[in-house]
Records
---
Amino acid sequence: MRYITLDVFTDTMFGGNQLAVFPDATEIPEELLLPITREFNFSEVTFCYPAPDAAHTRRVRIFTPGAEMPFAGHPTIGTAAVLALCENALGGAREGKLTLALGVGSVPVDVRIQSETLAWAELSVAKLPEIGPLVPTLTTLAEILSLETKDLVGGSLSPQAVSCGIPFLLVPLKSVDAVQRARVQMDRWDQTLKKSWAPEILVAARDPEMGEQCWRARMFAPGLNVPEDPATGSAVAAFGGWLAMKDSKPDAVFEWTVRQGIEMGRPSLLSVRTTKVAGAVTAVQVAGQAVLTGEGMLRLRSR
């Protein structure tokens, strides 16, 4: 079976978040989808199928090494890039809109081809931000993250569980230094977050060196067998939606950039835009670039 690999949320090979895409997975047995994902050992692999109807470009299934996911950002951006660059999904045009049928629903993706190996894409979330249940105290979260309580932001930006299709525990920190020092203590995570509504953790702090609208982030997902992810579009979507909710402006378009993966040696750059009308979030978009890195064939039989 033919697959294509690429790095997502970067314009440079060997940065960003790795992804493998199977453009036509119709002949892959269901019971092999998870083992194939584990074989690649990337944070996600996507499997493409014919569109369920004329309104969609493809049906796409997303797997981590731990489970199938209804939605994820970098696999959606990367799969759209592959379909545009390698599968002529734009019908010869240099830019256009693809609509992917994901587990969470229909996800439109605007795509622009920039070169033979590079594309830019922007997804619009199918599910607007949902606020989750109460989260552990600042003291408990500091223990989980190997930090001090004073490293965490309180008040109006106290940690919150939010979902745009996948729940994340959003934990704002006071400094980039605190982001760099964060380490998940697995025993405390097992005791407090493992069975919670949002067990995956995004830590973020404003990055003043890069500008007022820039954040530095890391994402830990031990429950998905992903100790740390270099770029997480679904978490950034939830974060951007939540930041807009906390802002007092009733009508506005908010834009932020998020740098992630620095500590892993895989720098990533994500853009998030949130639209707010009459005090309510009405749209969240996440955008970034993706660069092709390779292509190959996977044998489904040993002989």
Note: Residues 73-86 form the longest helix (14 residues).
---
Amino acid sequence: MNEMTRCGWAGDDPVMQAYHDAEWGVPVRDARTLWEMLMLEGFQAGLSWRTILHRREGFRAAFAGFDPVKVAGFGAADVERLMGDPGIIRARAKIEETIGAARIFVAMQAEGENFSDWLWELAGGETQVNDGVHVPASTPVSEAMSKALKARGFKFVGPVIVYAFMQAVGMVNDHAPECFRRGAVAAA
């Protein structure tokens, strides 16, 4: 029986493979899900995506299901609670950034701005399909999105993190040419 050919980064970890097979590169238009993914990518800074993915359920529990309205209401006691939570990455700056980013998200929403529409407009409105061979660390689009996010007050959104986010949420299709998901994601 032939095994499916996946992008090399999925490796032999079942959690990574499941994420690759079901989520990575599939276009996401839901604002809350985009915010969650951006926050998780920020937590990844200096770490591996495998580490984050294996703790994703812990993050979801700790951050109220990544409900921006609830997270925006977190205060100092919540920061201390999260600093003691072994189910997440206990980095004070990243925890505080997630709370701050929730407040930005909620403020945008209150002003009638849709986070998803805003991000997708910055990304060009549709998925960019790349060759999957020459995968850059960042692009002019991720640099511009990074700059726009920083201008809004987001942190941990450098161009490399933003490009990884864009790949994860389907703004970019960088599945390898031989990957069984490349065509399906392109058709999504």
Note: Strands lie at 128-129, 172-173.
---
Amino acid sequence: MSDTKARCAWCVGDPLMEAYHDAEWGVPIRDSRTLWEMLILEGFQAGLSWRTILHRREGFRAAFDAFDPDAVARYDAAKVEALMADPGIIRARAKIEATIGNARAYLAMRDTGEDFGTWAWSLAGGAPRQGDGRHVPAKTAESEALSKALKAKSFKFVGATIAYAWMQAVGMVNDHAHDCFRRDQV
């Protein structure tokens, strides 16, 4: 039996991408640790496709201690070298080092009583924004402001385009295509 659901064009033809689209993309996430994981993965996507990252997501989870910020913040030079040799992830030193720094930035927020999820959602307006379903921008004024705020908290690999992709992935904005079956569900 053929699956005839109308989906966003970016996921069609790859079963893993379709499953991600159908179950995860655009669904509002408020859990701070999950939001942080997705921000890290979006940062690794810079210059690559989401397909590349998604197909290595389990490798990333294994390599980065299930994205436990406490563990990642303790990584040292030897761990960076081990990650540079790990074929299950994208072996980009700047992105690996940014991930360690981003874990430390996340923990600095937590240690001062600031919840990452609450903070991020407050910058995004507190509730999901509805895209028009026809035109998907690479960045918006909101993603530029979010990027600037993340950078002010010492996060790296969080430019406005990465911030917008993150906002889409975690449901801060619903950019499912106008004819996608998920548009009205998220």
Note: The CA atoms of residues 108 and 114 lie 9 Å apart.
